[in-house]
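Example 4.3 (complexes with small molecules)
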Amino acid sequence: IKYVYDFSEGSSDMKALLGGKGANLAQMVKEGLAVPPGFTVTTEACLRYLEEGREFVQSLWIDVETALERLESQTGRTFGSGPEPLLVSVRSGAPISMPGMMDTILNLGLNDDTRSALAEMVGDDRFAWDSYRRFIQMFGNVVKGVPSERFESILEEVRRNKGVALDHQLDAEALASLVKRYLSLYEEVTGETFPSDPWIQLREAVEAVFDSWNTARAKTYRKIHGIDDSMGTAVNVVAMVYGNLGGDSGTGVCFSRNPADGEKKLYGEFLVNAQGEDVVAGIRTPQPIGELTRVMPEIFEELKATADRLERRFKDMQDIEFTVERGKLYILQTRTGKRSAEAAVRIAVEMEKEGLIDRNEALGRISPEQVERLLHSQIDPNCVPDVISRGLPASPGAAVGRIVFDPDEAVAMAEKGESVVLVRPETTPDDIHGLYAAKGILTSRGGMTSHAAVVARGLGKPCVSGAEDVSIDLEGGRLLTEDREFVKGDFITVDGSTGRVIAGEVPLSLPSISDELNTVLDWADEAADLQVWANGDTPEDAKRARSFGAKGIGLCRTEHMFMAEDRFPVMQRMVVAESLEERQEALDDLRAMQVEDFVGIFREMDGLPVIVRLLDPPLHEFLPKIPELDKRIVEADSAGYDTSKLRKMKSRAESLREVNPMLGFRGCRLGIVYPEIYGMQIRAIFDAMSSLPDVNLKVEIMMPLVQTKGEMALLREMVDSIASEYPQASLSYLVGTMIELPRAALRAAELAEDAEFFSFGTNDLTQTCLGLSRDDVESKFMKEYVDKGIFPISPFHVLDRDGVGELMAIAFERGRKARPDISIGICGEHGGDPKSVAFCHSLGLNYVSCSPFRVPVARMAAGWAAL
Ligand code: PEP
Ligand code: MG
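Answer. The structure with phosphoenolpyruvate bound is encoded below.
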């Protein structure tokens, strides 16, 4: 088996074997771009190493040696000796990009001899010492686990002694002494002398990259992003080029389009006289790429042309690392750029317009989760925020939370339900759990491509990076601006769309949907097989649902109308009524109110279907709890008021009390036992319909919690006989049922005899299929179950395909068979969850119905499911 490939032997379609980085480097060589020469050790070699250990490296090594010989002849330099020593970088590259997760070692091949030779070769003693100390630090840290802080604190001390602020102000002599101290630190921590043999350096570095596939942080990243653990990583060995050879050298990172908003314009940053790590690690804050037009105009033009070319070749936005060595541009890496959701939408739409990709490809590039992110909060434009600092708008959206400096603490506080903003000078891959737990992120150092910025964009979390005018005192737990101080637990708001850092809690508002997003959602609708409807109870909900693109109301929960302040007392009167006359009186008042609601909703939904569900919750939900009533009776009594009404309410509450109300006197059982209640609601619906001669009505009346044919037949008869009271023969409506009990799912065929449509109420169906109380388990033990892997995720969030899903499949099949034109949808919360939507698509449902705010997400999910 061939384990080592020169760049000139690979291509971009060999990612599984060569890793993303290696495959793209190879492709660039193919395209004739200036890539430093090098070779790739394959992911297969990594996997064998992880299985067989060191032994395997013996046999691998012959190939590495010959590859290195080729590298020597290509560069005209020699590995491990002068006069022109060959130095290499060793970089990992998994098949799927895992930013910041794996490690890089630069300047490998240096020892005391080659360092002197390098100094001769480039005519710069200082540079050679600087390269050497960087190498010792990276090798020590990455390969041997010597803590970076130990190196940093020595560096800090040397800087202080010399009275300089920045590393590049240290002279050769200072760097030479630094090297000495680094070497003894290495010895102290590892108990070994630093390997001066470049072959040993290379071998240990390659092994370290292999090993880093299984570090905790790499595993965490893979877990969060659902990346396969069995891919392994490739190792790239690349001849070094130098960005720190003076004012005509430099290094940078650029994107072919803006990764924050998607604008088609070269975007990124660079540092003059620096090596790549300085940019990525956020140690020095770099200059925006546009400045290159001033500093190195030809390089800027060449870079721009290269970016264009790479984009056309890879048909996607590229994230490019480059180095300029004495006026010559080298491309070190290109890969598909991570981007914010906003940028993803704009780039997909514009690339489709440019003819670079087709519509389905464009659609496939925006996930439902990204659409969800676009509906993230923004700072309410009407408020005047107290801006304390401005940093870079690293990841869009706004977040409010309590300041927390420590990632572990961020996790702990988030678990308690607190919103937190993680505040750090900069972040590293070790902080990933904190970034994940936080609502937003603020760093005082680092640019748009710093670790915090990249990770935050991936997670869709608001992030402000490089807010340099705040200082962060980690030890003291303080965030300081020039004249103010904030401590842990204080509220702060970060606006990742503008870079503003704001004191306190600021009101947030939902953004409107951009034209580009609308375009994409229209494409999704075209691609989709199922429609997206919304659950809504008021005319405002209906209006919002329509504006988000809902094609109907799939569930109008009429009980929500009774919860309004002015209606609640009337509803209570109805519940407390002792005689039919008394109840009827209250119902008459309610009817007028319901008519008003229905008129509003029907009007908003002119031309689109509206499913009105009759009363569902147990009646005691409309009464105060008994202890509260006791308290009120005592209070009223001691104030000398008449308590008879309260006592009556209490005795009714007592008689309605249930041990398990979710399975008690609720749903259509109410309508069957108190036909006057459903009668009122049905009349209110028909009243409203009759009063709207100009509206194109598509009204459907839905029964909750039905499980037998007897119930369904009786309810259908009730609706039809009330309809016959109305003069218009044209009063057209449908009658249907929710499927939210296992028995209903199993007996779907006979229910379909009277029901003209089904709607899966998967909240109750999950509760009853699994025997899990929907109101209790989430707070009590669901987390334990998920942690123990019993459920991959709560079945109330993502539909349980194996259990609930099977009931749905049975109901679907039996219902359709009995009534081939029956319309079947879903209106449980799952209707807005992308994975559950995909399942509904595979079943063949007509529509999913979800909260109005989730409609765009569900539309995207429906489109995706059909791709
Ligand atoms: C359901 O049970 O899924 C449903 C939509 O009804 P509700 O949530 O009102 O019980
Ligand atoms: Mg229900």
